[in-house]
Design brief:
By secondary structure, this protein is mainly alpha-helical. The protein is built from 2 helices and no strands. The protein is elongated and about 60 Å long.
Length: 70
């Protein structure tokens, strides 16, 4: 049998329940869903590589050259 529970981890009791469940890794699987936006769809997330590419692009636009080549 599989049970699905929604636990509010913003409360002390919710965090305590999660801590107890995490002690039983062999039989408990905890899924952390992606946060949802106002439209009900998952919020877009970026990997570290994507974030750095955006950073380098913005810096190149600002300084006028690719500073990685200094």
């Amino acid at each position: 049998m599989t049970v699905t529970a929604h636990i509010d981890v913003s409360t002390p009791k919710g965090r305590k329940i999660i801590q107890e469940l995490e002690r039983h890794r062999k039989i408990v699987k905890i899924d952390n869903p992606l946060p949802l936006g106002e439209d009900g769809l998952p919020i877009k997330t970026f990997s570290v590589d994507e974030s750095f590419e955006k950073l380098w692009k913005k810096m190149e636009e600002h300084y006028g050259f690719d500073i990685r080549k200094l």
